[in-house]
Amino acid sequence: MLGPRASSRPPRSPSCSPTDLRELGPTFQSRALLKIGLEAKDTIVTAAQRYIEQGRQEGRQEGEAAVLLRLVRQRFGAAVDAHVERCIATASIAQLDTWATRIFSATTLSELLAD
């Protein structure tokens, strides 16, 4: 039988008690929350900056690939097949830049896409 102070809830662990922070005082609470908040903010901002930069790089690569593919189709017409399209679509920005500088001097697709 339960006594006057007995409860059906299990006792809380002292380290997890919600009163722990209150017992440490408002100054500690403020400093702790401020530090956690600033660290979390810095982490979130850093991650967001990485994703933004990655998005910019992917957008630049896709844009350059689209322009180069249009030029290649105009220059070489029917010789542009799915394989050439894949090569251009998956190329790095540096490789696309190399091919873009060759677009007017190359006489064949093989010459254009040579490494």
Describe this structure in words.
There is one protein chain. This protein is mainly α and 115 residues long. The protein has one domain. It is built from 5 helices and no strands. Helix 2 runs antiparallel to helix 3 and helix 2 runs parallel beside helix 4. The termini are far apart.
Q: Approximately how much beta-strand content do the residues carry?
A: under 5%
Please describe the biggest sheet, giving its number of strands, its sense, and whether it closes into a barrel.
none
Give the radius of gyration: 31 Å
Question: What is the averaged pLDDT score?
Answer: 81
**Which regions are unreliable across 5 or more consecutive residues at pLDDT < 50?**
none
- Computed structural class: mainly alpha
Number of domains: 1
N-to-C CA distance:
85 Å
Query: Which percent range fits the helix content?
Result: 55-70%
Count of helical stretches: 5
Q: Write down the overall geometry.
A: rod-shaped
The helix-strand sequence is HHHHH
How many DSSP E strands? 0
How would you summarize what this structure contains?
This protein has 115 residues and is mostly helical. The chain has 5 helices and no strands. The chain has helices spanning 20-24, 26-76, 82-90, 93-102, 109-113.
Features:
115 residues; mainly alpha; rod-shaped
